Structure formats: C-alpha cells, structure tokens
Amino acid sequence: MLVDKSEKIHTDSRTPKYMQVVNLILDDLDRGKLKIGDRIPSINETSFDFLLSRDTVEKAYNELRDRGIITSVRGKGFYVNSTNMANKVKVLLIFNKLSSYKKIIYYSIVDTLGNQATVDLQIHHYNRTIFENLLERNLGLYNYYVLAPHFFDENNHPETCYDLIQQIPKDKLLIMDRDVKDHENEFPGVYQDFARDILEALESGITHLRKYTRLILVFPKGDMYPVEIIDGFKRFCFFHNFNNLILDGIDDEQLYEGDSFIVLAETDLANIVKKSREQSLQLGKDIGLISYNETPLKEILAEGITTISTDFVEMGTTIANQILGVEDKIPLKSPFKMIIRKSL
C-alpha cells in the first residue's frame, strides 16, 4: 500500500493530477512494491487516500489500463497485468528542426536505446511559444526530455528560454547539440561549442588554407544558424592574418581564383560546385570549398568535399547511454574535426 498518498499529490505542479497518480503507481512497479497479479486500491479507495475526485482517479486508471499495465476484474477490482511497459524508459526528444543531421541523431538514440525505451519526437521550430505549449502538454509524461535548445525571438535574435527549460526537472533533462548560454555546466548532455569548434577545425587545416588569398564564410541570413560560428570564424582570421569576407548567400556572386569558401547550407554548396564548373575553376586548386556537417554524399560529390563536422552518430549514442546510465550524466563537448578531401 502507498503511504502518505495525499502528500504526494502536488496541487501547484504543472503535471496533471491524474498523471501524478499514474507516475506514483509506476514508481511502485519500478521499485518492486507492486508485482504482476497484485491488487491495487479501488477507485474509491484511491480517491479517498489522495483526496482526489473519482473522475481524476478513473482517468489515471484508464491510462494505466490503456498501457496494458493494469486490468479490471468485474466484482473484484484492479490488478497488475504487466510490468513490461512500466519498465520501459519513456523519452521525449524536442528538436529545433528535423534536418538530415537531426535524423542521424534521432536514429542513433533510438538504435542505442533499443527495446529498453519508447521514444517520441516533437519539433519546436526555434519558437518559444511552441516550446512552451509542448511543455504544457508533455511535462510529467516522460522519464527523460532531450532538448536541442536552439531558440530565436521574433526579431531573429538568439534567446535561451532558460525560464521554460527550468520547468523540466533537472534529473529528467538532457541537453543536445548546443548548451544553454550562461548556464553551460548546469545540464547534462552533449553539446557543440560552435565558436571554438570552427576556430580549432580551421587551425587543423591551416596549411591547406594558406594556398588561398581570402576566406569567405557563407552564412545564410534568416536561417537561424548559430551566430557563434561567425565569432569563431572572425577570431581565426584575425589570429592568423587571413583576408576574409562574410556573405549571406552565393546566388549572385562571381567566384574568383584564390578564394576559399566555408558554407553552411547545402544549397550554397551546390551553387559553388556548379559555378566552379561553369567558370572552369578547379576545386582544391583554383578555389577552396569547405562544407559544414559530414554526410556520405560529400565523400563522393565533386571527387570529395572537405567538411568540418561533429560526429552526429556519437552524439546520439552518448545521449542514449546517459539515459540508460551507461555513461555519467554530465555536460560533454562533442568532438569536432576537419575531414580533408580534394575540394581544399
């Protein structure tokens, strides 16, 4: 039997009361206090013990019955039917977008968790209001929340949404892909340090870059890429005395011999490859080209595109292992490197 049940229902919690009842019963299953075949209190008994309405308790029991965890026997009551669903970790992934790279992370998390967890996915589209609504609907329903905290306000300025992130219990939250500004060591997970990453990656390939007279970063305007990339690029060029330029697109630009481009968007990558052919400029000799984020296609495109990238598979694997307790739940910087190919 549960003890002090009424004290375990928090009236000021954002988690619905019926879900608090569900979670308490699941906790008892996890701890072995309830086993298959055990009878649980009736709706009236639980209503009395928790000081809740019958409707609230009935909703909780229906949720448990829908999951296959309890079953009702006419005239006898409710009994534990299965512990399999209760033992599975429930994970909600909250991504900023569903790009090809986020898909790699998603499948890496799912594959590593295997049958030990059920995984749901929601997208906040960089938007505070959407994120707030997602929290409103999902807080208290999952064992872990994996958040990619890329947010921009209505003026396309970066924001942290720290006040909203705080609503997720710290022991249930993992940060993915970027840290929370000014709270870098507060949340476990795996993050990229965008300014430091591009600086160190370019330094690792500096002998190749010295072939070129100018470095050009193509940073698309309004596409909500991490602005720290610009900071890291500027620092590299300043420290190593590179003539440089930042463009927001390449569509109307002429390519000039001696330039080396760093591109974030796949459309800009394709445009430069196309323009180089049209202007008879050889990649890796007349002009240089570096693309953000490694993909199998870039290994073969134009005889090999040089990339700077984190390991998205490893990022997903580490997140999953932190959930499973295989790795410590601490903030970890994701490795980032340059892969030299013919385009540089």
Automatic annotation (TrEMBL):
Pfam families, alphabetized: GntR
Cleavable signal peptide: none
Molecular-function GO terms, alphabetical: DNA binding; DNA-binding transcription factor activity
Keyword Transcription recorded: yes
Domain HTH gntR-type: 15-83
Keywords in alphabetical order: DNA-binding, Transcription, Transcription regulation
Domain of life: Bacteria
PANTHER family: GNTR-FAMILY TRANSCRIPTIONAL REGULATOR, HTH-TYPE TRANSCRIPTIONAL REPRESSOR YTRA
Protein name, UniProt field: GntR family transcriptional regulator
